[in-house]
From TrEMBL:
One of the protein's GO biological processes: pectin catabolic process
UniProt source species: Bacteroides muris
EC number of this enzyme: 3.2.1.89
Keyword Protein transport part of the UniProt annotation: no
Reaction catalyzed: The enzyme specifically hydrolyzes (1->4)-beta-D-galactosidic linkages in type I arabinogalactans
UniProt cross-references to InterPro entries, sorted A to Z: GH (IPR017853), Glyco_hydro_53 (IPR011683)
Protein name, entry field: Arabinogalactan endo-beta-1,4-galactanase
UniProt cross-references to Gene3D superfamilies, sorted A to Z: Glycosidases
The family this protein is said to belong to: Belongs to the glycosyl hydrolase 53 family.
Keywords linked to the UniProt accession: Glycosidase, Hydrolase
Entry-linked Pfam families: Glyco_hydro_53 (PF07745)
Length: 366
């Protein structure tokens, strides 16, 4: 009897994995700052130096999906964050979403539920809800999400995928819904916020896939505990951030993906953010030229090798259905769109030319 149950379970997992594998893989990037670069007259070039239209070029490179972030009221963000690219309000995202859909891409909308960057170290409560009672927050999230999506749909920019929160391992809208993936505090209100956002998505965009996005790909105990808390939540995709400088070696990610396939077999997994350094030039946060070089050299070749190894690993996992580069459009050649350089994009900040990692990236679907 035990053998029969084991065989039945293995058969179920095999069928599920084959079903997931049969789905179209998504390849793309978060290009939220592209309109700002275009407005500044930035010229993007392919690897030979030929000027290209970014959205057309990405399509030629095999991309079929684009991700864009949405802040609640980015005009209220600190000046330093605006200098880093915080400007994506609803009107901005609606217009970019229209272009993305018209170009034939699938569109991933990333709700930050903040006026500025939302990440593991900061999930600031939007100014409009700072004086609201905790009990009223779920309805506020529902109404905001619903109205935002209705605007997008009416404009012909209906998202195909929706992130309810950005890198929310530690919760969101602090302090009300701040959580510890291994703790117990505030999970009730946090889950209610997620339920409210998901409910709005199902009502306005019933065909869209809902993503819950975390950033502990290198720590299985926290990842498992976190998604166990959400067993009853209505969502479709486990979204992960994976950066080699913060989330350990590619092999560690592979182990996490294997474990997700066993413990959460009904969920697709997407790497909704990844990137690696090719330089630290004009990087205001880098303390040395070789910082974060534990696994890969800080060079264009190091970035290429990382991308090659990442794609090779992801292609081993049937549950992985999407891969997105974060800030691939960074291109400081001839402009000052941002204060300082990150040097983690797919274009050289000095020449505007596509980097070698671009050709490795597209192997995910080729």
């Amino acid at each position: 009897m035990k053998i029969f149950r084991l065989m039945s379970t293995l058969f179920f997992l095999l069928v599920l994995c084959l079903g997931i594998h049969a789905q179209q893989r998504l390849l793309g990037g978060d290009i939220s700052l592209l309109p700002s670069y275009e407005e500044a007259g930035t010229v993007y070039r392919d690897e030979t130096g030929k000027a290209v239209n970014p959205l057309e070029y990405f399509k030629e490179e095999g991309w079929n999906a684009i991700r864009v972030r949405l802040f609640v009221e980015p005009d209220r963000a600190p000046a330093e964050h605006k200098g880093e690219g915080v400007c994506q309000d609803l009107d901005y995202v609606m217009k970019l979403g229209q272009r993305i859909k018209e170009a034939g891409y699938q569109f991933m909308l990333d709700f930050h539920y903040s006026d500025t960057w939302a990440d593991p170290g900061k999930q600031f409560m939007p100014c409009r809800w700072k004086n609201s009672s905790v009990a009223s927050l779920p309805d506020s999230v529902y109404q905001y999400t619903k109205k935002s999506l209705e605007v997008m749909v009416k404009a012909g920019a209906c998202p195909d995928l929706v992130q309810v929160g950005n890198e929310i391992t530690n919760g969101m809208m602090w302090p009300a819904a701040k959580v510890n993936p291994l703790g117990k505090d505030n999970w009730d209100i946090f889950v209610k916020l997620l339920e409210s956002g998901a409910k709005a998505c199902r009502e306005v965009c019933p065909r869209a896939k809902i993503i819950i996005h975390t950033e502990k790909a290198g720590e299985w105990d926290k990842t498992k505990s976190y998604y166990n808390h959400l067993r009853q939540l209505d969502y479709d995709v486990i979204g992960l951030s994976y950066y080699p400088m913060w989330h350990k070696a590619v092999g560690v990610l592979g182990a996490t993906l294997d474990s997700l396939a066993v413990d959460f077999p009904d969920k697709e997994v997407m790497i909704v953010e990844t990137a690696a350094y090719y330089s630290h030039e004009k990087d205001q946060w880098a303390k040395s030229a070789d910082q974060y070089s534990e696994f890969y050299p800080i060079s264009t070749e190091g970035q290429r090798i990382f991308t090659h190894e990442l794609v090779a690993e992801l292609c081993r996992h049937a549950n992985v259905t999407g891969l997105f580069w974060w800030f691939p459009e960074e291109n400081a050649c001839g402009n000052t769109v941002t204060e300082g350089w990150l040097n983690r994009g797919l274009f050289d900040n000095r020449t505007g030319k596509a980097l070698p990692a671009m050709k490795e990236f597209n192997r995910f679907i080729r």
